[in-house]
Design a protein that fits this description.
alpha+beta, Chitinase A, domain 3, 7-stranded antiparallel beta sheet, 4 helices, 7 strands, 31% helix
Length: 179
């Protein structure tokens, strides 16, 4: 018995169609181990912070004219001149001027470039080190702060003169405090 070729091809196509209509097998996403990435990132940041701290402590050891205190906020400071005036509190408007240097005492930004700055304590944005440092000062005082990069401009720098992950020296004079 001969099978018609049209019927044969029709049955063959129907058979192939039925076989190929299985449910699709879902592809599993490629698994990325984020915990290992985070651990590597934390380890790298700890190494960077350790190197910065060593550089800062070396700078402090070389500066025999000043006595530095470590703040509880992760930076160091030395009062150039002291007085008994009041400290600013949250909401006070302060007027101050400052300059920024690197750890080799090279001037990055001068007082003239920056000008006098008016700032409302904890109500506006500044680098975290400067925000915390101003609260340690008294009206009329001048203080030298040494900030690790995470208290200054961090990973980005200022995209002009300050590099990434660069510890900085700020010489700040608190001119005036207004309630």
């Amino acid at each position: 018995m001969k099978i018609n070729s049209k019927i044969f091809f029709g049955i063959l196509i129907l058979f192939i169609t039925l076989i190929s209509c299985d449910d699709p097998i879902p592809r599993r996403p490629v698994s990325h181990h984020t915990t290992s990435y985070m651990q590597e990132s934390v380890a790298l940041n700890q190494q960077i912070n350790t190197l910065e701290e060593k550089a800062i402590l070396f700078y402090i050891a070389q500066d025999s004219l000043r006595k530095y205190k470590a703040s509880k906020n992760g930076f160091w400071y030395s009062k150039i001149n002291q007085n008994k005036n009041r400290k600013p509190i949250v909401g006070d408007e302060v007027l101050f001027e400052y300059e920024i240097l690197d750890l080799s005492n090279q001037l990055i930004y001068s007082k003239e470039e920056i000008g006098q700055v008016s700032y409302s304590i904890d109500k506006e944005n500044l680098t975290t080190g400067l925000q915390e440092g101003l609260k340690l000062m008294r009206e009329g005082e001048e203080v030298k702060f040494i900030f690790p990069s995470f208290k200054a401009f961090g990973f980005t720098g200022d995209r002009q003169k300050i590099g990434v992950k660069q510890p900085l020296i700020y010489k700040v004079k608190l001119i005036n405090i207004n309630k």
